[in-house]
Every structure is written in C-alpha cells, then in structure tokens.
Amino acid sequence: MSGVMRFNLQKAGFEVEVAENGRIAAEWLMAEPFDLLLTDFQMPEMDGDELCRRLRECPLNDEIPIIMVSAKGFELDIPSLQAELGIVEVIYKPFSPRQIVETVNQVLSAVSVAS
C-alpha cells in the first residue's frame, strides 16, 4: 500500500496496518481480528488469491470483508473470486486514494448495517 493511500485512510479516521508482503499479512490475520482486508492481487511472497484463501480458513477472520486491488482486471475471473473468497469489491489500477477511502467507507457501512 502506498504511503499516500495509508495517509488518506488514516486521515479518514481508519487505523491502518501495512504488511510488507502477503506472507506477513497472513501471519497478522491469523493472529488477531481485523475489520477489513484491503489487498493487492500481486504481492511478493504470497499473492492476494492465496492470502484470501488462507484468511477464509481462519475462524478469527473468516468473515471479514475483502477489497482487492489489481492491475490484472481483464485476466481475473472476478465473479469466481467473489463467490469463492467473499471478495466484496475489486478496484482496478490506476485508482485514486479518494476512491479507496470511499470504497472502504461503503463496505464498512454495509457491514455495520447488516450486523
């Protein structure tokens, strides 16, 4: 996650944890509960697909909403990823930090309404 995205999410009032790679993100997600996962499809050490699969196997975070960003829009089978992994939103690169903040707000608002 770029520093600009982190800055904008924090400015919007979110607590943000940034993992250096997919493996570290998986370790964090297996150790403590999170409200939302914002992940890239392509990451070092573990891609977003594998990260999401591991997340869904962990009872601690198996139901948190997932937003995935990707530069591979035409190469991904989005309906399958959404059905299989519960990805609620896919955002294609390039995107604006404002779009990320708006999407995070929408997803978390929908989750609190459903609860």
Question: What's a concise summary of this model?
Answer:
The protein is α/β, with parallel strands linked by helices and 115 residues long. It is built from five helices and three strands. Helix 1 (3-11) crosses helix 5 and helix 2 (22-31) packs parallel to helix 3.
Please provide a written account of the structure.
The chain has 5 helices and 3 strands. The protein has 115 residues and is α/β, with parallel strands linked by helices. It has one domain: Response regulator (Rossmann fold), CATH 3.40.50. A 3-stranded parallel β-sheet has the order 1-2-3, sandwiched between helices. β2 (66-70), α4 (78-85) and β3 form a beta-alpha-beta unit. α1 (3-11) packs across α5. The chain is globular. The mean pLDDT is 90.
Task: Set down the secondary structure blueprint.
Blueprint: H1 3-11, H2 22-31, E1 37-40, H3 48-57, E2 66-70, H4 78-85, E3 87-92, H5 97-114
Helix pairs in contact: 1-5, 2-3
Question: Which descriptors would you attach to this protein?
Answer:
single chain, 115 residues, alpha/beta, Rossmann fold, three-stranded parallel sheet, 5 helices
Mean pLDDT value: 90
- C-alpha Rg (nearest Å): 13 Å
CATH architecture: 3-Layer(aba) Sandwich
Please summarize the sheet with the most strands.
3 strands, parallel
Structural class, by secondary structure, is alpha/beta
Question: How much of the residues is beta strand, in percent?
Answer: 5-15%
What's the arrangement of strands in the largest beta sheet? Answer: 1-2-3
DSSP strand count: 3
Q: How many domains would you count in the coordinates?
A: 1
